[in-house]
Design brief:
The structure holds 3 protein chains of 3 kinds. By secondary structure, chain A is an alpha+beta fold. Chain A is 56% helix and 16% strand. Chain A is elongated. The two termini of chain A are 31 Å apart. In chain A, 45% of the residues are buried. Chain B has 15 helices and 12 strands. Classes of the chains: A alpha+beta, B alpha+beta, C alpha/beta. At the A-B interface, helix 2, strand 2, strand 3, helix 6 and strand 6 of A face helix 2, strand 2, strand 3, strand 6 and helix 10 of B.
């Protein structure tokens, strides 16, 4: 072992309690950071995945302006052939066309205004979780069948059951009166009452007939296996769009602007908290290293008079701090990883979390995953601040005068 | 008592012996306490705003409905009483901020588009104190009376429907016999809300007009009462319970919206966790400082013991020293928190992430809320935990053998 | 009645691998108003004996009796009380609490005893005058010379009129002139107040002030001379 290193190491253990307490402070914050960041990243990932997979998808092809206004006339022409072409090109089934209208849905007893969505029954399953949530009956079958799938809450409110008929009344693409009678073939239950009450689905072909869509729809949803592929695929899709047709491709951030911002808002408050934690640790290190320098004034005086430069002493102090930092980093990251691992097996929850998380398409129990990033990012920042905190004590050494220093007790 | 004075004086002087160390520790405590209180004030503000927005959408602190209304908010579940008769009771009972409304799902259709909305039939006079709409800020005008024939819609909805002030829209809902009830309205005003979805989902029409359109005579969907403070609505709740009779359900806001309801409790928990985490981060430095202080003073402590001071007094002296340090830090930190909240009391604009805040159910202006109870909580927690953290070094100091301590170099 | 009686005291320390007999069957009796010097080379047992008499250290066996009261078996709390009220201490160094001024250092003991403030103050000023430090009441230890510090320590030791003052190498850090001054002060106080003094030292000059000189070696008393009579 290098002699300077050995010196630094032994110096640290002259005051084992102090060293442990300082390492403990670093360890504590590292552990907390590893756990919190793992939890946070995991939560954001889930939020994005769940929200996008529920309905929105990663990319959508729409007419310009549809994203803001969602008007009936803002259509994608020949939507099914286009979707088929894309499915062939990407050799993927995770692409499906949709159309949306608002209609008054009436049973014999009741009426409710809901969104009516036309979907491609064969592919909808791959771009939305809704078909999988059907608890009674089945999801839509034929493209042109007069069928409907509705939420459990709506079924209850309309006092209807599987097999009953509903009347849809709304306006078609041209603003004319549109009406149809459909058969309830499935009831879904998402767990969110408001969602169940406000969405109904019918086959796209039938939708096009009822609402006078003339072969058009409102958008094509594209789901990707990896969120990181979005920009690349977006470019490919843009290149594939039929020339002369006015269409745009939106990514999920544009489709769900709230999502990224919600994450940003949450992140900024979390980073404020982490920042405070890191600064407090830095103070702790500063205190320790300053004390350790001050109490060694006499000793440093002797070494200086022997001809050692203050710069070298300063480096010694920085090395001692670095050892503190590394110890705290190793133990903290290790404990943080263990802690996170325990929760990744047993799940993490707190009172009231169920009500809170349901709002963001999140489960009531998290299983945070340790990743290299979440394991290193917090401790790395703490390490940098630990070293920075030792700069002042190290610089003080430059002011040391050998004779005066030796006189100090 | 005299003993306390002796100890306090010693503690105070000892604190300033190593002023550098004390100042660093003090800076850390001040920063920590500031972060505790400042962050809590921001969070409190956020939650308050969220609840205020939530309540203004609900709206009201205490609500009266038909027992089935919450599961099935339709025309079929009106309060089975005369509105006039019940209203008279509310007036007699001395309620000031209360209102009765018709609240049903409806479909609004312009020349171009249809949308599902919530139709609120209100009395503009009694609604003024309850709603999220600022009457004076409405573009055009707000409803003038219960039998006003106009409708006031959100700006966002107007844009989607491609309509504007003066244009006609058709509202479609159902009457109690499930016949379509529709009526043309002229748009007389456009409102803005600080939660975007309100602008899309709610529209206001005169209560009498809506009652006539829906053919429901003198009936309404809900009675709502606003109390003084959303944290304590039990008095109003009891009073309302006395007023109403028959087949109705009386609920407080946190029962109506469990997300908001749990938010308060989760917040209380979060505040405590945050305070404790910050304290733990500080505690390493605090204990370290005390250990060092005791270590440096071993001989003095031995001397005092030799002179006949009791160990318990040594213990007391170290604890007083620690509490003094904490108390100064708490005072400075609390004052700093107060000082930093003052300039932003009128709100911080966080509209860059407005849609994200929307998703969390928050508005885009943040009003920090400095609660005395939170300041007290932070102070008490820090003092109590600080006392506990000081026990170990103080105990060790009091356990020294006088001759060993005194001869220690 | 004698001020201090020690009967057959034994005390063994372990230093590394070796047992050191600091007190080896020591018996001694010191009369009230005595002025006794314990002299021994380093490790001779004088500090151990002093600490045993002062209730700072417990002998392995034997009895210590102060003013007729056996103290070697008292609990810690009562020992502290005894030291507070009946015994004054002067140590070699680090006698004073650094954060307190000269007057406060003297008042400290009285304050712990619960003496009222006004009386405390008056007695502190008087005693400082008596030890020749009038005018230095508000100095902190760091601003005083070694001799002045020791005088403050003496003042503190005698301020509550203890029957017994124990001093361990009180002159070790002083030059000879200052040391003489301190010893004269001790003699004065001894004669004036009839306070019993037991001083451990290996300084020949200090011994010359003693009325009675007790020499120790390897934990045993080897010589006991009454110098007053001589």
């Amino acid at each position: 072992m290098n002699l300077v290193f050995r010196l630094a190491w032994r110096n640290l253990w002259r005051q084992p309690r102090r060293t442990w307490l300082t390492v403990g402070a670093i360890m504590f914050s590292n552990m907390l950071l590893v756990f919190m960041i793992s939890l946070q990243f995991g939560m954001y990932g889930l939020m994005i995945d769940n929200t996008l997979q529920a309905f929105t998808g990663h990319l959508q092809i729409q007419a310009p302006g549809y994203i803001d206004d969602q008007k009936m006339r803002q259509t994608v022409d020949n939507v099914v052939p286009l979707a088929t072409e894309l499915r062939d090109y990407f050799d993927s089934d995770n692409i499906a066309a949709r159309a949306t209208a608002f209609a008054l849905v009436s049973s014999e007893e009741r009426s409710y205004g809901t969104a009516v969505i036309g979907t491609e029954p064969a592919f909808e399953r791959n771009v939305s979780t809704l078909p999988g949530l059907v608890t009674q009956g089945r999801y839509l079958g034929e493209q042109d069948a007069a069928e409907i799938v509705i939420g459990a809450a709506l079924a209850r409110n309309l006092r209807v059951a599987l097999g009953d008929e509903l009347t849809l009344i709304g306006s078609g693409r041209d603003g004319s009166f549109a009406a149809a009678v459909v058969n309830i073939v499935g009831v879904f239950e998402s767990g969110l009452v408001d969602f169940d009450r406000s969405i109904t689905e019918i086959p796209l072909g039938f939708f096009q007939d009822v609402f006078y869509m003339d072969g058009s729809g409102h958008y094509i949803v594209i789901n990707l296996p990896l969120i990181d592929d979005v920009p690349v695929v977006q470019e490919q899709v843009e290149a594939l769009l039929p020339a002369g047709e006015d269409l745009v491709v939106h990514d999920w951030d544009a489709l769900q602007p709230g999502l990224k911002q919600a994450i940003k808002a949450d992140m900024s408050s979390a980073f404020f908290m982490y920042g405070i934690l890191v600064i407090l640790v830095a103070f702790s290190v500063l205190n320790t290293q300053l004390m350790s320098v001050l109490e060694r004034t006499h000793e440093f005086g002797i070494v200086l008079s022997l001809g050692l430069t203050p710069g070298r002493l300063g480096r010694l102090v920085l090395l001692e701090t670095a050892i503190l930092g590394v110890l705290g980093l190793l133990f903290g990251a290790l404990l943080g990883a263990l802690f996170t691992y325990w929760f990744s097996v047993n799940g993490f929850s707190y009172p009231g979390m169920e009500e809170m998380t349901a709002k963001f398409n999140l489960p009531a129990r998290f299983y945070p995953q340790v990743s290299v990033l979440s394991l290193l990012i917090g401790p790395a920042v703490v390490f940098i601040f630990t070293i920075l905190a030792a700069v002042y004590p190290a610089l003080r050494l430059r002011k040391l005068h050998p004779v005066e220093a030796m006189r100090a007790v | 008592m005299h003993m306390f004075v002796v100890l306090a004086r010693l503690a105070w002087r000892n604190l300033w012996r190593n002023h550098r160390r004390t100042l660093i520790m003090l800076a850390a405590i001040t920063l920590g306490v500031w972060a505790m209180i400042f962050m809590t004030a921001l969070m409190r503000g956020m939650v308050s705003q969220m609840i205020a927005d939530g309540i203004s959408a609900l709206p009201g602190h205490v609500q009266v409905h038909h027992p089935d209304y919450r599961d099935d908010p339709s025309i079929a579940n009106l309060i089975p009483r005369s509105d006039t008769e019940l209203s008279a009771r509310f007036v007699d009972a001395g309620f000031v901020k209360w209102s009765s409304r018709v609240r049903v799902p409806a479909v609004i259709t312009s020349e171009y588009e249809s949308r599902g909305v919530t139709l609120l039939g209100i009395d503009p006079d009694s609604e003024r104190d309850l709603t999220f709409v600022d009457y004076d800020a409405v573009e055009g005008r707000f409803l003038s009376a219960s039998d006003d024939s106009g409708v006031v819609i959100g700006k966002k909805l107007a844009a989607t429907l491609n309509t504007e002030i003066g244009k006609r829209v058709v509202l479609m809902s159902q009457d109690p016999d499930n016949d379509i009830a529709d009526r043309g309205f002229r748009v007389i005003g456009l409102f803005e809300a600080n939660v975007q979805s309100f602008e899309e989902n709610y529209l206001f029409a005169g209560k009498a007009t809506v009652q006539k359109m829906l053919r429901i005579g003198d009936q309404v969907s809900e009675f709502v009462v606003l109390g003084e403070d959303y944290r304590d609505v039990d008095a109003e709740f009891e009073k309302v319970l006395q007023l109403v009779d028959g087949n109705v359900e009386v609920k407080r806001w946190f029962e109506l919206d469990p997300y908001l309801g749990t938010m308060l409790g989760v917040m209380d928990g979060f505040v405590l966790v945050w305070i404790v985490v910050i304290f733990l981060a500080l505690s390493f430095g605090l204990v370290n400082t005390l250990v060092m202080a005791v270590f440096e003073r071993v001989r003095e402590i031995g001397l005092m013991l030799a002179l006949g001071m009791k160990p318990i007094n040594i213990l007391g002296q170290i604890i007083i020293e620690s509490l003094l340090l904490l108390a100064i830090g708490l005072a400075l930190g609390s004052a700093l928190a107060w000082a930093t909240v003052q300039p932003i009391k009128d709100g911080i604009d966080v509209s860059i992430v407005s849609e994200g805040m929307d998703m969390w159910g928050m508005s885009s202006v943040l009003y920090p809320e400095l609660l005395l109870s939170d300041v007290v909580l932070a102070n008490v927690v820090v003092l109590v935990l600080g006392f506990l953290a000081s026990l170990s070094p103080a105990w060790r100091a009091s356990r020294y053998e006088p001759i060993e301590a005194i001869t220690k170099v | 009645m004698s001020a201090v009686t020690c009967v057959d005291l034994c005390k063994t320390y372990r230093q590394g691998e070796v047992d050191i007999k600091a007190l080896d069957h020591v018996s001694i009796e010191i009369d009230k108003g005595g002025f006794v010097c314990l002299s021994a080379p380093s490790g001779g047992g004088k500090t151990t004996l002093l600490n045993a008499i002062g209730g700072l250290d417990r002998p392995d066996s034997g009895e210590v009796i102060i003013n007729g009261r056996r103290i070697d078996n008292l609990p810690k709390g009562e020992l502290a009380e005894l030291r507070l009220r009946q015994i004054g201490f002067v140590f070699q160094a680090f006698n004073l609490i650094p954060v307190l001024t000269a007057r406060e250092n003297i008042e400290f003991v009285m304050q712990v005893q619960g003496v009222p403030a006004a009386e405390r103050r008056q007695r502190a000023v008087e005693i400082l005058e008596e030890v020749g430090l009038a005018g230095l009441e508000d100095r902190r230890p760091a601003d005083m010379s070694g001799g002045q510090q020791q005088r403050v320590a003496v003042a503190r030791a005698i301020v509550s009129r203890p029957a017994l003052v124990l001093a361990d190498e009180p002159t070790a850090n002083l030059d000879s002139k200052t040391a003489d001054g301190l010893m004269e002060l001790f003699r004065e106080l001894n004669e004036h107040h009839n306070t019993t003094f037991v001083i451990a030292t290996h300084d020949k000059r200090v011994m010359s002030y003693a009325k009675r000189l007790v020499r120790m070696l390897d934990g045993r008393i080897v010589d006991d001379i009454n110098q007053d009579a001589a």
